[in-house]
Amino acid sequence: MAVVLGPNRYGKAETRLVRVVRDGGVHHLKDLSVSTALSGDMEAVHLTGDNAAVLPTDTQKNTVYALARSRGVDQIEDFALALARHFVDSQPTIRHARVEIEEYSWERIPPAAPGAGERRHSFVRAGTEVRTCLVHHDESGRSTVVSGLRDLTVLNTTGSEFHGFIRDAYTTLEPTTDRVLATAVRARWRHVSPDSDFAGSYREVRRRLLEAFAGTHSLSLQQTLYAMGRSVLAGRPEICEVRLALPNRHHFLVDLEPFGLDNPGEVYFAADRPYGLIEGAVLTEDAPGAGSAWD
Amino acid sequence: MAVVLGPNRYGKAETRLVRVVRDGGVHHLKDLSVSTALSGDMEAVHLTGDNAAVLPTDTQKNTVYALARSRGVDQIEDFALALARHFVDSQPTIRHARVEIEEYSWERIPPAAPGAGERRHSFVRAGTEVRTCLVHHDESGRSTVVSGLRDLTVLNTTGSEFHGFIRDAYTTLEPTTDRVLATAVRARWRHVSPDSDFAGSYREVRRRLLEAFAGTHSLSLQQTLYAMGRSVLAGRPEICEVRLALPNRHHFLVDLEPFGLDNPGEVYFAADRPYGLIEGAVLTEDAPGAGSAWD
Amino acid sequence: MAVVLGPNRYGKAETRLVRVVRDGGVHHLKDLSVSTALSGDMEAVHLTGDNAAVLPTDTQKNTVYALARSRGVDQIEDFALALARHFVDSQPTIRHARVEIEEYSWERIPPAAPGAGERRHSFVRAGTEVRTCLVHHDESGRSTVVSGLRDLTVLNTTGSEFHGFIRDAYTTLEPTTDRVLATAVRARWRHVSPDSDFAGSYREVRRRLLEAFAGTHSLSLQQTLYAMGRSVLAGRPEICEVRLALPNRHHFLVDLEPFGLDNPGEVYFAADRPYGLIEGAVLTEDAPGAGSAWD
Amino acid sequence: MAVVLGPNRYGKAETRLVRVVRDGGVHHLKDLSVSTALSGDMEAVHLTGDNAAVLPTDTQKNTVYALARSRGVDQIEDFALALARHFVDSQPTIRHARVEIEEYSWERIPPAAPGAGERRHSFVRAGTEVRTCLVHHDESGRSTVVSGLRDLTVLNTTGSEFHGFIRDAYTTLEPTTDRVLATAVRARWRHVSPDSDFAGSYREVRRRLLEAFAGTHSLSLQQTLYAMGRSVLAGRPEICEVRLALPNRHHFLVDLEPFGLDNPGEVYFAADRPYGLIEGAVLTEDAPGAGSAWD
Question: What confidence score (pLDDT) does residue D114 get?
Answer without folding.
Answer: 84
